[in-house]
Amino acid sequence: MASVIIVGTQWGDEGKGKIVDYLADKCEYVVRSQGGSNAGHTVVVDNVKYKLRLLPSGILHKDKVCVIGNGVVIEPKVFLSEIDELIAKKVNISNLKISNRAHVLMPYHKILDALQEEDLGENKIGTTKNGIGPCYMDKASRLGIRICDLMDKDEFARKLKFNVELKNKLLKKLYNHEEINYEELLEEYLGYAERLKPYVADTAQILNDAIKSKKNILFEGAQATMLDLDHGTYPFVTSSYPSAAGACSGSGVGPRKIDHVIGVVKAYSTRVGEGPFPSELFDDIGQFIRDKGGEYGTVTGRPRRCGWLDACVLRYASYINGLDSIAITRLDILDELDKIKICVGYKYNNEILTWYPANLNILSKVEPVYEEFEGWKTDTSSIREYDKLPENAKKYLKRLSELVDTEISIVSVGAGRDQTIILKNIF
Ligand code: GDP
Ligand code: IMO
Ligand code: MG
Q: To test ligand 2's pocket by mutation, which of 18, 73, 127 has the most ligand atoms within 8 angstroms of CB?
């Protein structure tokens, strides 16, 4: 038995969903523990594309218990439309559980997210406008409404009433925005409560019982280390804790119960939204990667910023998460390139930094130092064994593993389940 955490090591969209879907086969439980509908995990099974935002990617395996933990913020409308879509595609969702301690995302969170971004002007974060920040703000301010409150009609009505009063003050006085109607919102959400009820459970208890019964559990990270509220490129981050520690607090499982942490690494870098990105490419190669990789946001459709792989980011992600191994995805996207680079150091004031800068004024001025590799100019998408990869691809992977000082457990060469090369068995 093992409990394994999957985390993003860069700025999100590394292919966490694909890796979770692949490994889910070997485990009984798949858990989301932070974030919300800002996540977009695309999983391809038998050539059918599934876009998951709140539901764990394990849902596509019929017999897995899928858990949405206490650390997630749940927008009921998104949750219900996701399960409706899956039911229409004949996916079994009867083993789905949502934590009674998770927070409920309300329409006023989305309104406030958009208004705050607009107000910030050139200082905006570039959020997904899904209300994530304002919902976590309410949680930290102890104003939030939890799933267990939503299940209790009177408590929900009481909490919603004072929240709507507070939000209307903000909306009217600060933003000169139309007010929210309490009665309409109450009716809408009580309707959702009925539909959510069958899934609500004490998920921390379920997971700890599962650990006692020696079941295999996979924790599916959303967002990524560089978007972590504490460890990312603050303030250009999300409002939750996507690094490995967040999987424990966001699910109610103690850190000593975790056996392995896998960092998912896209073979190049991408970022959506604002914030520094030292190895960003503004040339034809950046555009080539965007086009070949279809690097456009799953949630917002925004073009993703593209750049070379950054070993400084990965070394940082390795110790922040305590990575045991890395899973490299999208190697195939680099197949046609003549030359490929990895950023191996940041130069600042003519010195190579030995630490990852917290100060964004420094981070935005660092000059990336690159190592250059010969491309392999071979289609890797149908290769299934490490030894059969082209020599230059192996050189690239070997050097990457050295630079990050972490072994590679998985290499992915396509979106499909079978397009996966295993170097080390995790379960
Ligand atoms: P996530 O948010 O980390 O789960 O990643 P996304 O789903 O947002 O973006 C990753 C995209 O790459 C998805 O469309 C996946 O289907 C796709 N994908 C995953 N692994 C591979 C791979 O090895 N090669 C290719 N070409 N696509 C992949
Ligand atoms: P997955 O799970 C990539 C980014 C947004 C923005 C910042 C804050 O698919 O990897 P938020 O709406 O969270 O307040 O936005 O974080 N962001 C993501 N970028 N992948 C994601 O999720 C992201 N979730 C949030 O673009 O820069
Ligand atoms: Mg994504």
A: 127
Q: Are 68 and 113 in contact (CB under 8 A)?
A: no
Q: Is the CB of 17 under 6 A from ligand 1?
A: yes
CA 272 – ligand 3 centroid, Å: 10
Nearest CA to ligand 2 atom 15: 127
d(CA 330, CA 316): 21
Asked if residue 82 has its Cβ within 6 Å of ligand 1, the reply is no
- Paired tokens of 144: 């939030």
Q: What is the pLDDT of residue 227?
A: 98
List, in sequence order, every beta strand (DSSP E) within 88-245: 96-99, 103-104, 200-201, 217-220
All residues at 6 or more sequence positions from 344 whose CB lies less than 8 Å from its CB, including other chains: 311, 312, 369, 370, 371, 403
Q: What is the pLDDT of residue 57?
A: 96
Task: Please give the structure tokens belonging to residue 55.
Answer: 């539901």
Q: What are the b/e assignments for 137-156, b being 16+ CB within 10 Å?
A: bbbeeeebbbbbbbeeeeeb
Mean pLDDT, consecutive 10-residue segments, the chain of 427 residues?
95 97 96 97 94 96 96 98 95 96 98 97 96 98 98 98 98 96 98 98 98 97 98 98 98 98 98 96 97 86 94 98 98 98 97 96 97 98 98 98 97 97 95
Q: Which ligand is nearest to the CA of 334?
A: 1
Amino acid 1: pLDDT: 74
Going by alpha carbons, the residue nearest to atom 2 of ligand 1 is 13
* 329 CB within 6 A, ligand 1: yes
What's the CA gap between 42 and 139, in Å, rounded? 28
103 is catalytic: no
Closest residue by CA, ligand 1 atom 20: 415
Instruction: Say if residue 235 is preceded by a cis peptide, omega within 30 of 0.
Output: yes
What is the reported pLDDT for 111?
A: 98
Backbone angles phi, psi at 104, to 5 degrees: -95, 130
- What letters, b where the CB count within 10 A reaches 16 and e where it falls short, cover 255-279? eeebebbbbbbbbbbbbbbbbbbbb
- 223 CA to middle of ligand 2, Å? 6
Ligand nearest to C-alpha 330: 1
Q: What is the predicted pLDDT for the residue at 106? A: 98
Q: How far apart are CA 282 and CA 25, in angstroms?
A: 39
Catalytic annotation on 13? yes
